[in-house]
TrEMBL record:
Signal peptide: none annotated. This is TIGR00725 family protein. The lineage of its organism: Archaea, Methanobacteriati, Methanobacteriota, Stenosarchaea group, Methanomicrobia. SUPFAM superfamilies: MCP/YpsA-like. InterPro entries: CHP00725, LDcluster4, LOG_family_nucleotidases.
Amino acid sequence: MQIAVIGREDCSAEEYEAAETIGYLIAGNHETVCCGGLGGVMEAACRGAKEGGGRTVGILPHTGEGNPYLDVVIRTGMGHARNVVLVNSAEAVIAVGGGYGTLSEIAVSLKTEKPVFGLSTWKIEGVFVCATPEEAVILAVRAARLSRPSRSPRGPGESS
C-alpha cells in the first residue's frame, strides 16, 4: 500500500518532526510513503521512512532530483498538476500543516473519495482531524488496507 504524506516545503520545525514520525510509523507498518518529493514535510516523511527501513516514492512537479531520501523518483514536469497523480497513487492521505498546494491535494483526495487524515491542517468537512502522528498513521493504514481488495494470486472468491 502507498500512503501519501502531503504538506508544505517551507514547514515549521513542529510539522517537520511530525512528518518524520509519520514516515517512520508508515515504514513500521510495512507500507510505502508517497509524496511530492521535495523538501519540508515531504522530505521529513521520507527521512522518517528511511530511518524505519521503509520505501519512498516522490512524484516531482519538475524534472529535478527531489529530496535525498527518495527510493523512486518520478519526474513529471507537470507542476501542480502532479498533485492529482500523487493522490491517485495512494490508498490514503495524511496532511501535515500545509498551504494552497496541500489544499488542492486534499480537494482532489476528497473528490476521488480517498480518506484524508489531518494533523494541524485545513479544517474541511471530510478531513479526519488527528491529534498525533500516531493516530494519523493508525487510521490511514487501516483505511488503506480496507480500501484494497485482496491481492491473492487465486483472485477474489476462489478457495484454496
